[in-house]
Amino acid sequence: MRFLILGATGPSGVLLIRKTLEVYPDSTIIVFARSPNKIPEDLRNNGSLTIVKGTFDDLDELESAVQLGIDVVLSALGPVVSPSALTTHSPTTPIATFYGHLIDLLYKYNVKRFISLSTASVTDPHDKPSLKYAAIVRGVKTVAYPAYADIVAMGEVIRSKGQDLDYTLVRVPFLTNGDTEGVYAGYIGDGKIGVTLSRKGFAAFSVGEVANRKWVKAAPMISNA
Question: Which residues form the NAD(P)-binding domain (predicted)?
């Protein structure tokens, strides 16, 4: 298996790399990252990793990563909440725009599987009313509108432009540094979804879904069991 991993310099992305290497020890992992030096040294020196340096605007470098021959994209990309997010309501959507370019390349190079981090701000027809989740989404929308807008746009571009991909939107609640990988996957309002998830759980679920394929063209909400 050959993987392209995005968001690999953040804590969830690092765990995504480690879990992929654990489950697929003979795999090749291509990392597209703006700051490769933020990847732990043991991973940078791992012979299974190929690191391509680039930003959201470096589309030639992105294409060079995709054309190395990949089977699956795993993404831990998510908006960064900056101080400006507390004051602006005129956001851009940098990750969603980047995803649009990425999807064009996935079609060009016949890559079908795309598993991406998402959140409860992206709704799903299977969701049911939930006061706690409604409050969480309303709070994010109020205090960090640019991040909210980018997450929503990410979901829209994957579902619309990427409609012919085998995508999975892995919606997560509040992420923690807990040590458990056990997760429950369902939908908001089903009476079982909690409001916290370990980053290890996100990584384990995402990598597991590569083979399980239970949630293709779906947007499960996951939390620690």
Answer: 7-210
